[in-house]
Amino acid sequence: MRYAPSPTGYPHVGNIRTAMFNWLFARHYGGRFVLRIEDTDVARTVPGALEAILESLRWLNLDWDEGPEVGGGYGPYVQSQRLPLYHEAAERLVREGHAYYCFCSPERLEQMRAEQTKRKEPPRYDRLCRCLTTDQASDKATSGVIPVVRFKTPLEGLTTFTDLIRGEVTFDNATLDDFVLLKSDGYPTYHMASIVDDHSMLISHVMRAEEWLSSTPRHVLLYRALGWEPPQFAHLPMILGPDRSKLSKRHGATSLIEYREAGFLPETMVNFLALLGWSLDDKTELLSREEIVKSFTLEHISKTPAIFNREKLEWMNGVYIRSLKVEDLTNRIIPFLERDLPPGVPRPLSRDYVLKIAPLIQERARTLAEAAQLSDFFFVVEPHYDPALLLSKNTGPDDIANALHITLERLRTIESFDTARLEPMLRSLAAELGMKTGVLFGALRTATTGRTAAPPLFQTMEALGKDRCLRRIEAAIDLLGRLERAK
RNA sequence: GCCCUCAUCGUCUAGGGGCCCAGGACGCUGGCCUUUCAAGCCGGUAACAGGGGUUCGAAUCCCCUUGGGGGCACCA
Prior knowledge:
By secondary structure, the chain is mainly α. It is 47% helix and 8% strand. It has helices spanning 13-29, 49-59, 83-95, 106-118, 134-142, 190-200, 216-226, 256-261, 266-274, 289-295, 310-323, 326-340, 351-362, 371-375, 397-413, 419-433, 437-449, 457-464, 466-486; strands at residues 2-3, 34-35, 99-102, 148-151, 158-163, 167-172, 180-182, 205-209, 232-236, 239-240, 306-307. 33% of the residues are buried.
């Protein structure tokens, strides 16, 4: 198996899903997973893209047996370092009558296509140079035009191959044109390079996205012309954006690394991506990487394109976050908190403190990136909030202030400031004051956290600690007083 | 325009002739639990694109239509 990305951009979830399916297939059957870099488009190569590819694979722990950084017996694994191989194959094809030099200028080709389109004909090369004699060709060559090498596609006949997912697929050769093998800059096209490399790297199965299905007959023809046995092909359904079109930047977060930044766990991504185009049975949603490897086969791959469903991804990530050990969650959350908490919060954060807070947000966070927003009141000196939030229906500021005052005094006397002590104490206090627990607890929640929706009150207070709580309650009473005077 | 391909709830999917007046999950939604928010539990909503065949019997097989997707570069 191989994953053969081109460093022309950051790999998106579809690219990585393809990589992962190849990896899964290799691991399931005990095969080898090869990583090959297809950098034959010099103009479109993006700096940093290669690193992003490796980083994406590493993040999901998709290790490659051969390829950049690890080597292997069939390298080099970067196409720009294999140019002689492609030239050799191309020259052989020309020599044996399967390919020819084409001297047509890009301008001519463009004009030709424009006219074809205007006549509602399929745009394709008109084969002008196909019939050039050797003499004519060398004449042109000496005149300084650098030719490309084109494949001499059979004019008639059918090309049939078996796709492991779709079954037999047939193309009429008459609908294919004479595609370019070698570009004038000396680099091969994808068609040429991938065939030469897949053959020489002993690739047995080519699993790639469906967008390649229509160029597969060209590949089959090329294999035949070179006298090589083609690999097995399997074309994966595409992953589409919410508008049902090919995934692109327009669809928001698409590059895999963006999901890491957004606080998704790698185990979530592996599980979720596996389910995009593959399924185990009629009910299993949550699978570990080991379980996926164990049961991954082609039979369960679907043929229909899938739309990336972010809501379900978030749900799944929440499930994985909740399954984490507190220590693990703490370690994973700290970088996000340090990134996202207000600038005023001193770094580095205390790991012990985060350790106390982590369990309180574990049930509530769907992504690690939500951690800061769910817990910022634990870190800021004083939370700022609308004093009206301290109030409840049918209870005036005076009553709340009074209740908070009494609470404050009781809390001062408490020796161990923990949930076990706080809960019974505050419950009986509410009864004593003749207040509904919801009213008292609500006011205390707002006072201590600055918000109406927060983790369970007593645990929150325990984590905050006595000093912080007392100070915040005092501030709340103060706020209520000012609210009264403003009236 | 031409070629290829696909077609089950809004989305991801199970289903490969009777087990399906179609199952699971996300979402949405009703209830329970509850100091808020979550989480959890119980329930509900919602689909076989349409039309012809084949068959005792079709979501499942065949054909057509429609619709979606992809391709048609000196990009991969």
